[in-house]
Amino acid sequence: MNSIVLEVIGTTLQEVKTAAQHGADRIELITGITEGGLTPSIGLIEEASAAVDIPVNVMVRPHSRSFVYDADDMRTIVEDVRRIRQTGANAIVFGALTPGGKVDVPALEHVLEAADGMQMTFHRAIDEANDIYEALDVLLAYPQITTVLTSGGKPSALDARAELAAMVRQAEGSKLAILAGSGLKQDAVSSFVRDTGVQQVHFGSNVRVNGQALSPIDPGRLRTLKATIRSL
């Protein structure tokens, strides 16, 4: 099996440094972790991107009300993307849906244009789509979208093994990777990877002190997780 990519949420510069030092392969940089992630400040993005040698992917999400964005939201999003493009960050993390629960293609294309070749992860907005497989099919048409962060349409990825395995098969042969996240635990990751075939996993709370979202990253928990993943 190819090596599994471990993406870790970072919310502060210190967390980004800790994650990189203790086994993360990539950072998802956010603020508002208890809201599912919001756009961090430009200052933090610049500092984080300069501080570590691993890729830093940046959340672009102006609020947590929904993944449906109006014209004012889109102006903010596009301006954030243009500025993030200048920071040295690796990629943006974005997702948008129509009120009817489909991928908002005009919004997506507007953001991809602003990203100007920068890679994108389409985030867990897909889990609120009416049909996750139809949504994935839309995303597969865009080469800039290299990753889809998903829990397979369920609150915890651990409960969506069949769905995630189907998404992995759907993306097979493309340059798009399925990044499984939400609810993953170190003691379940081996069987989860075996059952789903995912090659990328995303951890937030479970690598923090006492597994609490608002606690700092626990180096010991992260090192243990990394050792488990290396053994796969």
TrEMBL record:
It is found in: Cytoplasm. SUPFAM superfamilies: CutC-like. The keyword Nuclease does not apply. InterPro entries: CutC-like (IPR005627), CutC-like_dom_sf (IPR036822). The keyword Cell wall biogenesis/degradation does not apply. Its main location: cytoplasm. Gene3D superfamilies: Copper homeostasis (CutC) domain. Pfam families: CutC. Keywords: Cytoplasm. Belongs to the CutC family. PANTHER family: COPPER HOMEOSTASIS PROTEIN CUTC, COPPER HOMEOSTASIS PROTEIN CUTC HOMOLOG. HAMAP family: CutC. This is PF03932 family protein CutC. It comes from Paenibacillus profundus.
